[in-house]
């Protein structure tokens, strides 16, 4: 089944070419002159192609006049110049075959606008809409840009495990992985006997590939992961998923400043790439989703990110006239409202906060000389808040051991992580970027559930 993609037909404007296109009907319009216009989209671009079907086609009365939104067709024809506005070429059909019907009485996607909430319930059909097609193409382009960015800089792409025996954040918000029959879980002295389970020990879905990425950074220099991560946090927000994709570079011989530099360069690179390569889809988002999105992105790439310490940010927030829902005290974690205030109202651009209080950050972050703060960095952007979390890692054996114990973790579980600080330890740093949060930022889509093909959130595991 040889076909030409519609994006290519529209781009090449090859008048006179004889081609075959296949796709799904968006609309059909019949003219009094005895022919029909059929708008077809195949997902290769936001724009579809207009097909002109003449009444002389043998199946004109029997099939073509019955075509409705959602039917799939194959059209063989000649590319002709379009007299109409909005498109340069169209296809004069010489043959039009219906591949699959879609009964308009029951096909849920009609020409009218549907709410995003409704479209989530038909995730098997929503990629046929303009918005979800555009999101899928932008997500694809951004994935490639991520690899290109790191590969151009000599980073090694690393696959870290999905199933792990360690809890990176020590937060306990993990999904358990087990092969037990849950109706008959083996017990020993009143507790679950994990020795009888598949791995002979408790196992979880990973919340981050960082700890394993550190292993490879301390052998290969610069590495990155790009894969799924899981959090069993029951937060029903527009920025949290239970399964999401994370990009995690990890660099040996790198300190916190180098880490912040890379994060800034990375975000700007991805944005520039999307603005250049996804022009049509970005124009769509700017028109229908968020009228300021392109302006915001152009602002981000043209300005330097604001860098300040957590302590300085607390001072700024303390002086704010804004009424916050949550209080701001030194030592407490910033909420999204505080992060957004800094980006949107104070600095009007992305903000990087560094040197957070030790108490609100994980054990692996390098403790500063003051003993009270760690070399953490969060990158905050307008409308979203935190998009990246990272740090320089603790590379001193004794300090790390102390921090593991302080945070109530068992050093035995981290024996290999500790050994990396015993044998050829080196300063190193890295960060984690939530891929879907970056897609939200780039597209202006307000809910994270609409930038991943299939959402995993509390109560949702269909499709
Ligand atoms: P938040 O405070 O927003 O929940 P976090 O501090 O838990 O974020 P990290 O553990 O530092 O986040 O993870 C690194 C990045 O992964 C975050 O900056 C964010 O972009 C993304 N991220 C974290 N949790 C989620 C989630 N549940 N869904 C989607 N992305 C997430
Ligand atoms: Mn979180």
Description of the molecule:
29% of the residues lie in helices and 25% in strands. It has 12 helices and 18 strands. A hairpin with a 7-residue loop joins strand 4 and strand 5. Helix 3 packs across helix 6. It is elongated. The model has no long low-confidence stretch (mean pLDDT 95). It binds adenosine-5'-triphosphate (ATP) and manganese (II) ion. Adenosine-5'-triphosphate binds next to strand 13, strand 17, strand 18 and helix 12.
State the helicity in percent bands: 25-40%
- Mass-distribution shape: elongated
| Sheet with the most strands, sense and barrel status | 8 strands, mixed
Q: Beta-strand level of the residues, as a percent range?
A: 25-35%
């Amino acid at each position: 089944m040889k076909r030409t993609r519609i994006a290519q037909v529209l781009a090449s404007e090859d008048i006179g070419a004889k081609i075959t296109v296949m796709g799904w009907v968006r609309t059909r319009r019949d003219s009094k002159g005895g022919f029909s216009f059929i708008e077809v989209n195949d997902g290769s671009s936001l724009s579809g192609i207009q097909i002109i079907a003449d009444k002389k086609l043998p199946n004109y009365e029997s099939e073509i006049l019955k075509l409705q939104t959602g039917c799939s067709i194959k059209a063989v024809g000649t590319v002709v110049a379009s007299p109409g506005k909005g498109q340069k070429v169209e296809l004069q059909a010489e043959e039009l075959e219906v591949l699959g019907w879609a009964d308009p009485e029951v096909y849920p996607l009609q020409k009218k606008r549907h709410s995003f909430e409704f479209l989530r319930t038909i995730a098997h059909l929503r990629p046929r809409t303009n918005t979800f097609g555009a999101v899928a193409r932008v997500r694809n382009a951004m994935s490639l840009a991520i690899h290109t960015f790191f590969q151009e800089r000599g980073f090694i792409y690393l696959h870290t495990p999905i199933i792990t025996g360690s809890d990176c954040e020590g937060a306990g918000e993990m999904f358990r992985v087990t092969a037990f029959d849950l109706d008959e879980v083996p017990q020993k002295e009143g507790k679950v006997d994990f020795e009888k389970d598949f791995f002979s020990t408790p196992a979880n879905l990973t919340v981050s590939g960082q700890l394993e990425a550190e292993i490879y950074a301390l052998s290969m220099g610069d590495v990155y992961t790009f894969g799924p991560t899981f959090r069993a946090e029951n937060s029903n927000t527009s920025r949290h998923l239970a399964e999401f994709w994370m990009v995690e570079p990890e660099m040996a011989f790198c300190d916190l400043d180098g880490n912040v530099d890379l994060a800034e360069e990375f975000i700007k690179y991805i944005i520039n790439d999307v603005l250049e390569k996804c022009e049509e889809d970005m124009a769509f988002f700017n028109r229908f989703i968020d009228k300021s999105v392109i302006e915001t992105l152009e602002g981000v790439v043209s300005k330097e990110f604001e860098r300040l310490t957590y302590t300085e940010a607390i001072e700024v927030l303390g002086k704010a006239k804004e009424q916050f829902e949550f209080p701001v005290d030194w030592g407490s974690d910033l909420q999204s409202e505080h992060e957004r205030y800094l980006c949107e109202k104070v600095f009007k651009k992305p903000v990087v906060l560094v040197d957070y209080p030790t108490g609100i950050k994980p054990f692996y972050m390098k403790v500063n000389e003051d003993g009270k703060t760690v070399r953490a960095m969060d990158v905050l952007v307008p409308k979203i808040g935190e998009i990246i979390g990272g740090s320089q890692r603790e590379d001193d054996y004794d300090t790390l051991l102390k921090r593991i114990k302080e945070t109530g973790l068992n050093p035995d579980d981290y024996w290999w992580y500790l050994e990396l600080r015993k044998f050829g330890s080196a300063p190193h740093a890295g960060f984690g970027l939530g891929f879907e949060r970056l897609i939200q930022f780039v597209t202006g889509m307000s809910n994270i559930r609409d930038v991943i093909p299939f959402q995993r959130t509390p109560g949702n595991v269909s499709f």
